[in-house]
């Protein structure tokens, strides 16, 4: 799975993308916890992020994700386009 | 007149060069339309008393383009008479007073394009993954649109 980091999440993680191995079936909250294990500094934005899984927004919670190798998961801090 | 000669088109571009109002408005001009409505978002020189030096935008480009396409699709459902829609958003460093976003919509009559352009910018601020960093003299801050539902509600 390819994880993409943007804006503040990229600053906190210290990189913009990386490949991460996680269980194929995982809730979105468990996925967040796995990513925070790799980058503990991300913990501070827990209440201010959503995921984009294959470019679809997913909230952190009980939703079960079925991930495939090569799937793209992005960490999306609050947006500010326009 | 055979209106199929000018089929409705969406023009979506994210780019790091300076945006052109003339270019974006010309994209949507149509002989079948009596109205072109424009929104230009520009960069301000102050925030809460702090002097803003410049701004920096970044995007999840592929998803941002997909989300803008969804907005265009919604516009056509809500205002079927809308002809062309153009959305240009700037990325990278944007000096003060320059445009960060330009949206243009054409329609046979003005009501539809005016309503559609408002819908486009409001929805863009709520759903398109683009981020703005304001650079002050000795600090910076990541901005959060009030339309973004997962932003910290105290802000």
From TrEMBL, chain A:
Q: Share any extra remarks.
A: This protein is produced by a bicistronic gene which also produces the large subunit (MOCS2B).
InterPro entries recorded for this chain?
A: Beta-grasp_dom_sf, MOCS2A, MOCS2A_euk, Mopterin_synth/thiamin_S_b, ThiS/MoaD-like
Q: Which UniProt keywords apply?
A: Cytoplasm, Molybdenum cofactor biosynthesis, Nucleotide-binding, Phosphoprotein
- In the record, which positions carry 1-thioglycine? 82
Which Pfam families did the record assign?
ThiS (PF02597)
CC annotations in GO: molybdopterin adenylyltransferase complex; molybdopterin synthase complex
Gene3D superfamilies for this protein: 3.10.20.30
Taxonomic lineage of the native organism? Eukaryota, Metazoa, Chordata, Craniata, Vertebrata
UniProt subcellular location: Cytoplasm, Cytosol
PTM note: C-terminal thiocarboxylation occurs in 2 steps, it is first acyl-adenylated (-COAMP) via the hesA/moeB/thiF part of MOCS3, then thiocarboxylated (-COSH) via the rhodanese domain of MOCS3.
Q: What is this protein called?
A: Molybdopterin synthase sulfur carrier subunit
Glycyl adenylate occurs at which residues? 82
Q: Main role? A: Acts as a sulfur carrier required for molybdopterin biosynthesis. Component of the molybdopterin synthase complex that catalyzes the conversion of precursor Z into molybdopterin by mediating the incorporation of 2 sulfur atoms into precursor Z to generate a dithiolene group. In the complex, serves as sulfur donor by being thiocarboxylated (-COSH) at its C-terminus by MOCS3. After interaction with MOCS2B, the sulfur is then transferred to precursor Z to form molybdopterin.
Q: What domain of life does the native source organism fall in?
A: Eukaryota
User: Could you give the subunit structure recorded for this chain?
Assistant: Heterotetramer; composed of 2 small (MOCS2A) and 2 large (MOCS2B) subunits.
Tell me the pathway: Cofactor biosynthesis; molybdopterin biosynthesis
Q: Which family does it belong to?
A: Belongs to the MoaD family. MOCS2A subfamily.
GO terms assigned for molecular function: molybdopterin synthase activity; nucleotide binding
Which biological process terms from the Gene Ontology are attached to this UniProt entry?
Mo-molybdopterin cofactor biosynthetic process
Q: Which NCBIfam families match?
A: moaD
Automatic annotation (TrEMBL), chain B:
Q: Does the keyword DNA damage apply?
A: no
**UniProt xrefs under SUPFAM superfamilies:** Molybdopterin synthase subunit MoaE
Superkingdom, taxonomy of origin: Eukaryota
**Residue ranges the record marks as coiled coil:** none
Example GO molecular function: molybdopterin synthase activity
GO CC terms, sorted: molybdopterin synthase complex
Please give a single GO biological process term from the UniProt record. Answer: Mo-molybdopterin cofactor biosynthetic process
- Which Pfam family, just one, is annotated for this protein? MoaE
Keyword set for this entry?
Cytoplasm, Molybdenum cofactor biosynthesis, Transferase
Q: What is this protein called?
A: MOC2B synthase
The species this protein was found in = Dromaius novaehollandiae (Emu)
């Amino acid at each position: 799975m390819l994880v993409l980091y943007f804006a503040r999440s990229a600053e906190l993680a210290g990189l913009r993308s990386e490949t991460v191995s996680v269980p194929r079936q995982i809730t979105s909250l468990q996925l967040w916890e796995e990513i925070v294990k790799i980058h503990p500094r991300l913990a501070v934005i827990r209440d201010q992020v959503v995921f984009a899984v294959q470019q679809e927004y997913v909230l952190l919670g009980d939703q079960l994700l079925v991930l495939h190798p090569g799937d793209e998961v992005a960490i999306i801090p609050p947006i500010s386009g326009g | 007149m055979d209106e199929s000669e000018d089929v409705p088109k969406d023009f979506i571009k994210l780019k790091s060069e300076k945006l052109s109002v003339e270019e974006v408005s010309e994209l949507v001009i149509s002989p079948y339309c009596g109205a072109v409505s424009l929104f230009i978002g520009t960069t301000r020189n102050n925030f809460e008393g702090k002097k803003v030096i410049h701004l920096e935008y970044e995007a999840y480009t592929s998803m941002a383009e997909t989300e803008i396409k969804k907005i265009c699709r919604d516009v056509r459902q809500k205002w079927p008479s809308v002809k062309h829609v153009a959305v240009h958003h700037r990325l990278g460093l944007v000096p003060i007073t320059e445009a960060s976003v330009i949206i243009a919509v054409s329609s046979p009559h003005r009501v539809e394009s005016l309503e559609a352009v408002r819908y486009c910018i409001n929805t863009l601020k709520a759903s398109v993954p683009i981020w703005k960093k304001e650079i002050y003299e000795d600090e910076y801050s990541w901005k959060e649109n009030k339309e973004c539902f997962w932003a910290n509600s105290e802000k």
